[in-house]
Amino acid sequence: MNRNIAVIRGDGIGPEIVNQALLVLKRVAELYGHTFTYTDVDMGGCAIDKWGDPLPQEMLQKCIESDSVLLGAVGGPKWNDVPGHMRPEKGLLRLRAGMGVYSNNRPAKIWPQLADASPLKESIVQKGIDFIIVRELIGGIYFGKHETVEENGEAVSIDELRYTESEIERIGRIGFETAQKRNKKLCSVEKSNVLDSSRLWKKVMHRLAAEYPDVELSDMLVDNCAMQIVKDPSQFDVIVTENMFGDILSDEASMITGSIGMIPSSSLGATGCGLYEPIHGSAPDIAGKDIANPIGTVLAAAMMLRYSFDMAEEADCIENAVSAVLDAGYRTGDIFSEGCKKVGCTEMGSLIIENLKKG
Ligand code: NAD
C-alpha cells in the first residue's frame, strides 16, 4: 500500500521525537511491504522564523492533500512575545480548522508496566484506568473573537465562547459512536449551571441519546469531573466535552496514567485524513538533549496506521514492540523508576525498532 504522510517536526523536542517515529514507520513499511512517502511541512516557531507565518497557506495545502499528518509539537519561549495572531500555536489552530478535524480523541490508559508512575494511590490504580476523552476541537472559546479594549481607563479582555447546535451534534455523535465500540457508557461534561453554551450542549446530547439507546448517557459538571478523574477514574468509559474543558481534562487524565510523554492522540473529521500527534508540547526545557520520550509520537504513528490507513496489524506490531521494551525495563527519564534501565530518545527508538515483529 502506498501512503503519503505530511510530516511536521515543529519546535523544541518535535524533531527528535518525530525522527524516531519515522524510523519506526520505515521498519514497519519494510516488514509489511508498504511504501510510505513523506512531505515535510513547516509549522510553528520554525515557520515563523523561515516564512514569517506559523502556517503558510501552501504548507496547510500540503497537509490537506496528504493521506494523513504526523506532528511533533510546536511553540517555545523564543516566540512568547510575538503578536497573538503570529504565535506558533496559531499555526496548530489553523491546521485543525483547515483540515476540518473537529474531534480529538485521547486515550487515557495505564500501561501495567508503569502503574508505579501514576501519582494516584495503588488502590485507585488497581481498579483500572482505561477511558477516552472525545474533545471538540475547532469551536468554542479558542475560536471565538478575542480582544482587549480600553474601558474607563483600564484594559478589558473579552474571549467569546460560541457553539452552534450542529457543531455540538457532530461531536456528540462521535462520542456516542465511540461508546458503542467500547463499554457503552458516555459521560457528557459541561458547565450548564453557569454557561448558556453548556445548556445547549446538554440539550443536544439528550436529544441524540434517543438515537443511541444502547449507550448509557450521564451528565457531569466539569469541576466535578476534574475531581472524579483523580478520585475514581475507573468509572469512565468515554467522556465527550467541549474544546477548553477537554484541553484541561485530557492533560489531567494524562498525568494519572504516568507520563505525558506516553500518550498519543488523533484528530479526525469527515474524511480519512487525520492529524496524529503526542499530547504533550514542545518541552523546551529538555529540547536538544536526546532525553525526550518518543513513545507518545511512536504510538501516534500507530494510531495513524489503525484509524486512517486501515492497518490494524501494523499498529498492533508497534504497540506490542513498545510493550516489549517496557517489559524489558527500559525507560526514558520521565517514566524512570528505581531498578529500570534509563535510556535516551534515540536509544528508546532503536529498542522499539528491534522489537518490531511481524505477527
Ligand atoms: P510540555 O508538554 O511541552 O511540557 C510539560 C512538561 O512535560 C515539561 O517538563 C516537559 O519537559 C515534559 N515533557 C513533555 N513532553 C515530554 C516528553 N516527550 N518526554 C519527556 N518529558 C516531556 O508543556 P509546556 O511546557 O506547557 O509547553 C511548552 C511549549 O509547547 C509551549 O510553547 C506550548 O504552547 C507548546 N505546546 C504545544 C502543543 C502542541 O504542539 N500540540 C501542545 C501543548 C503545548
Write the layout of secondary structure elements.
Blueprint (H helix, E strand, L loop, with lengths): L1 E9 L3 H19 L2 E6 L4 H7 L5 H9 L2 E6 L14 H12 L3 E7 L12 H4 L4 E7 L9 E6 L2 E6 L5 H16 L4 E6 L5 H14 L6 E6 H10 L6 E4 L1 H14 L7 E5 L6 E4 L16 H13 L4 H16 L2 E2 L9 E2 L2 H10 L5
Helix pairs in contact: 1-10, 1-12, 6-7, 8-9, 10-11, 11-12
The site of nicotinamide-adenine-dinucleotide (NAD) has 22 residues, from helix 4.
Report what the structure shows.
A 10-stranded mixed sheet has the order 2-1-3-12-11-4-5-10-8-9, with helices on both faces. A two-stranded antiparallel ribbon has the order 6-7. The protein has a two-stranded parallel ribbon with strand order 13-14. It is built from 12 helices and 14 strands. With 359 residues, the protein is of the alpha/beta class. The chain folds into 2 domains: 1-105 and 261-359, Isopropylmalate Dehydrogenase; 119-256, Isopropylmalate Dehydrogenase. α11 (312-327) packs across α12 (345-354). The structure holds nicotinamide-adenine-dinucleotide (NAD). Nicotinamide-adenine-dinucleotide (NAD) is lined by residues 13, 17, 73-76, 89, 92, 260-261, 277, 280-286, 292-293, 296, 334. Nicotinamide-adenine-dinucleotide is lined by residues 13, 17, 73-76, 89, 92, 260-261, 277, 280-286, 292-293, 296, 334.
